[in-house]
Structures are given as structure tokens and as C-alpha cells.
Specification:
Order of helices and strands: EEEHEEEEEHHHEHEHEHEHEEHHEHE
Number of strands: 16
Strand content: 25-35%
Oligomer: single chain
Radius of gyration: 20 Å
Largest sheet: 7 strands, mixed
CATH superfamily of the largest domain: Medium-chain alcohol dehydrogenases, catalytic domain
CATH topology of the largest domain: Quinone Oxidoreductase, Chain A, domain 1
CATH class of the largest domain: Alpha Beta
Domain Enoyl reductase (ER): 22-338
CATH architecture of the largest domain: Alpha-Beta Complex
Keywords: Acetylation, Cytoplasm, Metal-binding, NADP, Oxidoreductase, RNA-binding, Zinc
Organism: Paenibacillus agri
Subunit structure: Homotetramer.
Pfam family, one: ADH_N
Amino acid sequence: MQNSKSMRAVGYYEYLPITHPDSLLDLEIPVPTPQGHDLLIRIEAIAVNPADTVVRQYNPATEGPYILGWDASGVVVEVGPECTLFKPGDEVFYAGSVIRPGNNSEFHLVDERIVGRKPKTLGFAEAASLPLTTITAWESLFDRLGIPHNPEINRNKSILIIGAAGGVGSIAVQLAKLAGLTVIGTASRPESAEWVKELGAEIVINHYEDFLPQLQQHGLDTVDYIFCLNKVDWNRLTQVIVPQGKICFIIDNDPPVELGQFLGKSVTVVWENMFTRSTFQTKDITEQHHLLNQMAELIDEGKIRTTVTERLSPINAANLKLAHAKMESRVAIGKIVLEHF
């Protein structure tokens, strides 16, 4: 049964260009009641991702308004009857699930098994910038590509991260560096290239130019792993991936790739969607809880830094429109965070 109280939220009823006055709306909706493994979170801060803009375009509201948002930090105010991991008063951060309402609201329900404890050394705004990008980068590097966590094993191995200045790339650069890999990041502007270097990439190349000549300028002909975050000419990947190397993608390509081009080198091609575990309620769904807690430890130890580059307040339709517009421009560096309703 739903709570009779109402809360503020930001959502939409139909897709409209972000410049349209009604593209995102300030709303009043009911406060939900936790069931099962649900936590009811009081939202303190949220972050905006490219996923928000994509879902807004392709997912019309059917029953009531559509609420976006897949990055948040906040405080647990109520727990469902099956909860064992958290209690009221706990400070948490998480990305949520695409098959449930998003977290652009004062209160939000989320399965505790995909929630982590907020890093103690970060405020809510900094913490909200991390979950989606952390889960995507962590699962891509360690689950999909199978990169060992041991720097000794990874010595003399390299990874090319295409689109390294964005939200996921910013975390992936740091995690790959921590794992002992030689990190090559791509960026196309001086400010984004500088950001990638600050995060730990030894080499930065331009993703609008052929990769091989740029790598050869740094004494490299191949890389052991590729993490592809942007659409790219896949022939460039074939040229530089080492025989029996591995490539992970988080987006589809246009036009579709001919996977046969990787046959000659026996390349492993894998995909990452951080919502797979929550969407299909996989047996290992709690892995996201564990990895977020591990990330919190790395942050508290000073080994990983937050990727916030812009903060807006309050959380309302006007500021979310600004954030969506920057996401759609595809020139954003790091993460945009909104705090306080």
C-alpha cells in the first residue's frame, strides 16, 4: 500500500527537446512504501548520466509521469521486511534500476542488494557522482574483461580506454591504473586530455584520428585490452588489439560491426550493461553491493578520487534541463551533480 504523503520530483509525460519548457517538469507524487528488499532513501544528491537523456528520448510515460535518475546518495529512512544489509539512518550511494522509477525525487525505493555504504570521506554530492560510473567501469574491467586485481600480474600490460574523459572513463582510468596497467586514454580537446592525464593515464591520444600511428609515437604497436565507451571506427580497434586480446563495449555501434574482423586475432568481444543484474535479478545481484563497498574503501583510503566537475542546486526541473543539455552536447567532462530539493 502506498504512503499517503507526497513528495517533490522531476519527470516528464512525453519526449520533448530539452529546450522545450515541458521537457522536464516539477511534480508532486506519492511517497512509496518499501517492500521486500527495498530501502526507502531520502535523496540528498543526484548525478546526471548519458543514460538519462537516452531514456528520456525513447521511453514515453505510460501510467503517470516518468521519473528519471540513476545516480544518488542519501539516507535510509525505512527498510522493507526482507532487508538485512542496512538500517534507518545509514548513509548510502547507489545507481538503482531501469525497470523501476528513477531517483529524481525526494524519496526513492531501491533494492538494498545494489546499494553501497557512502564513503565516509565524501559529502553527498561527491558520492552521488560515483555509483553508475563505478559499477560500469568495475564490471567492465574485472568481470567482463577479466583483468586481475593484482598489479604484479598486470605489469607490462596495457589498456586503451576510448572516451576516457567522461564519467565512466574517469573511473576506469583510475581503476586500471590501480590494477597496474599502462593506461592509454583518448580525448579530443586540450582540457579533456589534461583531465585524463590528471586521473593517471600515461598516454592520451585523439579518438578522431587513427590509433596505430599515435600509439607508435609512444613506442606501442598493440594494446592488451580495449574499453570502448564511444562509437568508433572498429577497424581502428582491429589494428591495435593484440592477438588474443579482449575488447569491452558499453554501447552499440552505428552501423553494426562485423564481428568477423576480430576472428583472425582470436579476439574476445564482450559487452557491459550495469543494469543487467538488477533487471534480471541475477543470482549474483549482491555483487553490486559488494563492489560499491569496496569502492568506498578505496576512496576513503585516498586511492580513488571523485569525478565531480560541476554542482547545481537545488534539484528541480530548471537545473536538470541544464544538466541534460550539457550531456546531450557530448562535451561534458566528469560528472554533473545536483543537490538539495
